Amino acid sequence: MSAQLPLGDISKLAIPTLPGMQPPKPQPGFWSSNPVFSYLNDVYSSVSEHRRSLGLNNPGTVEDLSREVSRDVLLGQYFFTGLRADLTKNFSTNPYFQITHSLSIGSQMMPPYAFTSLYATDDLVAQGTLDNNFALNGRVHYAWSKNNISKINSHIAKGQPAMVQLEQDYQGHDFSFNIKSLNPSFLDNGEFSGDVYASLLQSISKKLSIGIEAAYSRQAQYPPDAAISYLARYNADKWIASAQIKAQGSVVASFYRKVAENVSAGIETQILASMRPITDPMLGQTIGVEPVMEGVTTIGAKYEFRQSVFRGQIDSDGKVSCCLEKKILPTVSVLFSGELDHLKSTSRLGLGLQFETAGSEEMILRQQGLDANGNPLTLEQAAM
Amino acid sequence: MAYNFSEESKERIIKVLGATRTMVHYTWVPFILYLGWKSTSNKPNLISLFSPLPSA
Amino acid sequence: MNGVYGIPRATKQEPVSRFQKFKESPAYPVVLNVSLFAAGVWFIQSEIMDLMVPQ
């Protein structure tokens, strides 16, 4: 039955918030000619007309509110410890298909061995990772249209409850809406259990966008919990500032600047308020709570060179860390990451190698900078 | 928003979910490999699909 | 901490300086990080950052 659902046609629906879409003229009839509805229709079309005349852009997703700093300039996910090797084999570029064997020693985060397969077309991304304990991390993204993407993330491991996250991402003409749910279930006496997050980010001028995120969480046997977070992002072309006030009592502010073509710098401050129980020094009992504030500020820069990328950062806890990625051959990259904790006098090191091999004739030619017919690749083709 | 399932149907749903989970766990990666294998021009054999060594 | 709970102090408490008091208050990490952020933004926007671009 699902084959008949015209789901792929959502893009053809006239949604006035989609870029380049005109709302259809209301057909004269009872629903549009009676005074109440024609008034509402007029208001609706003049509002959407006005919104378009403001020339606002889509503000990007809530998840990416501070992507320039937290995902690009600062080390974050690039940092690793121990030794690792990634052996990637590319089979084709359109659709994109590759497999990766990852080996790792001495890391708390990465499993000793993992196998990843990735398949991607213009509207579908499917990825699966199995590690040496046979735990699966799976991911599917399906784009119904350029603006409407469904995502499923799942983690399944033996002897553990499965984790499933369903997500719908909608990017309108001047706003982004996202709703996601973690482990939703109605089996607990017919009541909902799980977590739901809904967020809306709206451009209110060409540079400023503000947003709100609501979280609702209910687990069996616990009372439900709801929270609201506020978001703001200011993009002034040369620099970008963002701030989040989270309901759990934390504030995150970030600032980014593209200093030059190949250099960018960023700073991020997190301040977290929490309650700490006070213990009676004599009896060892809890006699009350006191507010505790914790904060950390991290400043960093990213340098891109022809064959390498360098990231360095320093934070207010006295940690200095850097990450270097260098292509030593077209198919081999070396990764280095290091961290020095000056307050605790400890350090962490990571060293890695990335190999890329070809699984087809086409990919071998591509590695030599040629397309399938043996002609040199254009820049756009090479970037693919 | 309360759906009241009977004990029986609840058990059945849990069973179906458990079976789905097991199925996804064991077939997801092979399924992606099949999708990819189908899309490649040279249809690599199993060994070259898994081996990290170049093959063409 | 002090004599509220009737714990006898073995030694006489050292007078706490105002800075020490401020350092222990919850406002300290807030003020510190806000000023670090402001200083960092100023640094990134300043010409020193432009000088750090490799030629």
UniProtKB/TrEMBL annotation, chain A:
Its main location: mitochondrion. Gene3D superfamilies: Porin. GO terms for biological process: monoatomic ion transport; protein import into mitochondrial matrix; protein insertion into mitochondrial outer membrane. One of its GO terms (cellular component) is mitochondrial outer membrane translocase complex. It is found in: Mitochondrion outer membrane. Keywords: Ion transport, Membrane, Mitochondrion, Mitochondrion outer membrane, Porin, Protein transport, Transmembrane, Transmembrane beta strand, Transport. Coiled coil: none annotated. One of its GO terms (molecular function) is protein transmembrane transporter activity. It is a multi-pass membrane protein. It comes from the Eukaryota. Channel-forming protein essential for import of protein precursors into mitochondria. Belongs to the Tom40 family. This is Translocase of outer membrane 40 kDa subunit.
TrEMBL record, chain B:
It comes from the Eukaryota. Pfam families: Tom7. One of its GO terms (biological process) is protein import into mitochondrial matrix. Its main location: mitochondrion. It is a single-pass membrane protein. Keywords: Membrane, Mitochondrion, Mitochondrion outer membrane, Protein transport, Transmembrane, Transmembrane helix, Transport. InterPro entries: Tom7. It is found in: Mitochondrion outer membrane. The keyword Transcription does not apply. GO terms for molecular function: protein transmembrane transporter activity. One of its GO terms (cellular component) is mitochondrial outer membrane translocase complex. The keyword Mitochondrion applies. Belongs to the Tom7 family. This is Tom7-domain-containing protein. The lineage of its organism: Eukaryota, Fungi, Dikarya, Ascomycota, Saccharomycotina.
TrEMBL record, chain C:
Keywords: Membrane, Transmembrane, Transmembrane helix. One of its GO terms (biological process) is protein import into mitochondrial matrix. Pfam families: Tom6. It comes from the Eukaryota. The chain crosses the membrane at residues 27-45. InterPro entries: Tom6 (IPR020266). This is Uncharacterized protein. One of its GO terms (cellular component) is mitochondrial outer membrane translocase complex.
